[in-house]
Amino acid sequence: MPTHAALARSIVGIIGNVISFGLFFSPAPTFYKIIKKKDVEEFKPDPYLATLLNCAFWVFYGMPFVHPNSLLVVTINGIGLVIESIYLLIFFIYATNKGRKKVLGWLAAEFVFFAVIVAITLLVPGLHGTKHRSLMIGIICDIFNIMMYASPLTIMAKVIRTKSVKYMPFWLSLTNFLNGVCWTSYALIHPFDIYVLISNSIGAVSGIIQLILYACYFRKGGENAENGDDASKPTGDDANKTTDEIRPPV
Known about the structure:
By secondary structure, the chain is an all-alpha fold.
């Protein structure tokens, strides 16, 4: 029978899977719009390319020969791989030739980079054993996760500058916060996972800062919405950032 700690870890991990799935699925309306219009317009593939590579590394990290007892990390990131691949396929179908070349070029580069890291991890004699493999891949995963958690900084700066929360949807900020808290809790339950803890604790802090900003500026944003202040409406790249730059971590 599983211990109380193992049971608690599994429950928290399953909740984390559900929350993370919601974050992975959040750009779906964007791609529905692309399919409907048969045009990617100003949307960019960059966030999905970054998330695809991030998911690939976390799936590899969760393998038993790299970091045992990480099944729930593998499941959600495996789902993330599939979802991000679908997003990129849709983008590729409706993008211009230039956009398609960009996607193919980045996918090729990501594949080579991932393959090199996997080969080094599995073949270099000094990296035999899960302790050393976890260290190497865990650091890489944390770097990617921290970069993703840091990406909303530009949005937070814009909220402060414009005194409007139109650029930062409340439910997305709340979900990011809950996601960070959930995976931080998961990492703290035995067996302790320092690599899941580091990036997701930063994510939880990032999420609570977003919520504090929302609490400070939501009234101003409401006034702008009521007054129809076009100057505060996100356009172009800013419109993409509100949904695309806040990406799901582990």
